[in-house]
Amino acid sequence: MQEILSNSKKTTPSKVLCAVSGGVDSSVVATLLYRAIGENLIPIFVDTGLLRKGEREAVEKMFRDNLKVPLITIDASEEFLGLLKGVKDPEQKRKIIGETFIKVFEREAKKHNTNGEIKFLAQGTLYPDVIESVSVKGPSKTIKSHHNVGGLPEWMKFELIEPLRELFKDEVRALGRELGMPESMLMRHPFPGPGLAIRIMGEVTREDLNLLREADSIFIEELHKHGLYDKVWQAFCVLLNVKSVGVMGDNRTYDNTICVRAVEALDGMTATFSHLPHEFLESVSNRIINEVEGINRVVYDITSKPPGTIEWE
Predict the structure, then answer these.
(1) DSSP state of 51
(2) Please, which residues have CB within 8 angstroms of residue 43's CB and are 6 or more apart in sequence?
């Protein structure tokens, strides 16, 4: 890695801009590069406004306390939410988020690239991302676009570094262990690049994001409390934007529906829905309905992959 990033005269290595999401993949990439080139790594974390509750603070703490890697945080939430206004199609949402990510990184790169030191952009692309986005080694069709797949636009003059591109999630976690990364970080559930935008059916609004964050936070908290978090591959909530009649006390309600999703998998290529205890699901449902105003119904997704994907959009 050091040899690739250094020039032939062994002068100061080129700087590398690293896209950080706070998930396992980008964290492993950032750690790997920081070991290789130290301060010549410029890790950038973008707050898109589409993050889970407390996500930004957790990522900043993780990089500061666990990885000892300096992190630059950019708040671009207004920009992302503005561009997503009125957009309902999931592929269009993904493409808008992907293109905006690139623009945000390009702007930030210019601040650190006054003398042209930055030559590379690193990101945590995995093999399943590639398979779902493009046809690889066969006649597979595009299932859904991933913002970190497909290379960079011509106007972005960086060479792409994707050291995990041919690895699966379990292999990335094994690499993280070799690097000495803490288990609590390595076993974090996957979180998609487009964030909560693809866990809200239809248009993304601030109100819906707040509803989803609160419900999702309750679900994850309950999984930890009952010792189930590490027993599932991925767990999250989806806001269906489907309203139904309910009864709260003596009053009629007409509010939204939350879908609870939990799956078991090895590499993410296939998955089965988790057979969570009914008593646990009942507890989660009661907490969400009683604590999140605007939600009056909770359903559980029992679809495996295939035929479904893990994420809904």
Answers:
(1) P
(2) 18, 20, 30, 34, 63, 69, 70, 71, 72
Encode pLDDT of 141-168 as tens digits.
Answer: 555 454 444 455 565 677 888 999 999 8
Helices 77-84 + 90-112 axis angle, to 10: 150
278-293, pLDDT tens digit by residue?
Answer: 999 999 999 999 999 9
Residues 6+ apart with CB under 8 A from 38: none
DSSP letters, 160-209, are EE-TTTT--HHHHHHHHHHTT--HHHHTPPP--TTGGGGGBSSS--HHHH
In this prediction the pTM is 0.81
Cβ atoms 35, 180 nearer than 8 A: no
DSSP codes, 57-101: HHHHHIIIIII----EEEE-HHHHHHHHTT---HHHHHHHHHHHH
Burial of 140 (0-12, 13-18, 19+ CB in 10 A): exposed
Q: For residue 45, which amino acid is it?
A: F
Task: State how far the alpha carbon of 156 is from the alpha carbons of 17, 115, 119, 152, 299, in Å.
Answer: 12, 16, 10, 6, 44
In the chain, the largest separation of any two C-alpha atoms, in whole Å, equals 78
